C-alpha cells in the first residue's frame, strides 16, 4: 500500500483524485480500487483515529452529495486488529461507530474485513453493482484489520 503525507487524512481528500494523508488507492493506481484510509498509521490514540475516520466520512459524504447519488462510493478503513490478535481498541471503536451509522442510515453499509468476500450476500450484491471492486486486494482474505464502507 502506498502512503502519502502525514498522520491523518487532510482536508484535500478526494474520492476521485490525488489525496494527501495516509490515503491510498489500494494495490495500484486503477480507478477500480477502493480508496484506503489508514487509521492505525503512527499508532494514534483511539480518539485520534476516530476523529480521522469522522473527517474522512464527512468528506466522502460531501463528495457523494456532489455526485447526486449516481453511484455507490466506497472507502476502506485500515484499523488493524490489535497486536494481541484478538481485537484492538481502534478496531472495536471503528466498527461500533460504523455499525451505528449504518443503522441510522448515514451510510449504506459497513462490511467488516472478515465478511469482505464474494461468498457474503451483502458483499456479493455490491460486487454485482460494482464489478471493478472484485479487484480489491483484500477481497476474500478475511482480513480483520479492515472495514469497507459504502456511502
Q: Report the portion of residues in β strands.
A: 5-15%
Low-confidence stretches: 1-21, 25-32
Helix-and-strand structural type: alpha+beta
Tally of DSSP β-strands: 5
Overall mean pLDDT stands at 80
Principal-axis shape: globular
Structure annotation, total helices: 3
Distance between the termini: 22 Å
Strand order of the largest sheet: 1-2-3-5-4
Helix content: 25-40%
Largest sheet geometry? 5 strands, mixed
Taken together, the total number of domains comes to 1
- Using only C-alpha atoms, the radius of gyration works out to 14 Å
Secondary structure elements and their pairing?
Elements: E1 23-24, E2 36-38, H1 46-66, E3 74-78, H2 89-103, E4 109-112, H3 121-129, E5 146-150
Parallel strand pairs: 2-3
Antiparallel strand pairs: 1-2, 3-5, 4-5
Describe it for me?
With about 150 residues, the chain is of the alpha+beta class. It has one domain (about 25-150). The chain is about 30% helix and about 15% strand. It has helices at about 45-65, 90-105, 120-130; strands spanning about 25, 35-40, 75-80, 110, 145-150. The protein has a 5-stranded mixed sheet, with helices on one face. Strand 2 (about 35-40), helix 1 and strand 3 (about 75-80) form a beta-alpha-beta unit. Helix 1 runs parallel beside helix 2 (about 90-105). The longest helix is centred in the middle third of the chain and has 21 residues, at about 45-65. Mean pLDDT is about 80; it is low at about 1-20 and about 25-30.
Amino acid at each position: 500500500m502506498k502512503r502519502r503525507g502525514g498522520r491523518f487524512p487532510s482536508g484535500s481528500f478526494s474520492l476521485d483524485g490525488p489525496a494527501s494523508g495516509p490515503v491510498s488507492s489500494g494495490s495500484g493506481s486503477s480507478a477500480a480500487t477502493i480508496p484506503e484510509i489508514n487509521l492505525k498509521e503512527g499508532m494514534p490514540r483511539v480518539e485520534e483515529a476516530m476523529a480521522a475516520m469522522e473527517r474522512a466520512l464527512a468528506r466522502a459524504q460531501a463528495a457523494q452529495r456532489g455526485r447526486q447519488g449516481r453511484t455507490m462510493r466506497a472507502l476502506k478503513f485500515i484499523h488493524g486488529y490489535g497486536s494481541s490478535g484478538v481485537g484492538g481498541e481502534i478496531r472495536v471503536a471503528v466498527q461500533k461507530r460504523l455499525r451505528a451509522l449504518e443503522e441510522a442510515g448515514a451510510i449504506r453499509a459497513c462490511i467488516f474485513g472478515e465478511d469482505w468476500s464474494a461468498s457474503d450476500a451483502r458483499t456479493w450484491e455490491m460486487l454485482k453493482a460494482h464489478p471493478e471492486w472484485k479487484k480489491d486486494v483484500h477481497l476474500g482474505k478475511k482480513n480483520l484489520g479492515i472495514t469497507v464502507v459504502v456511502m
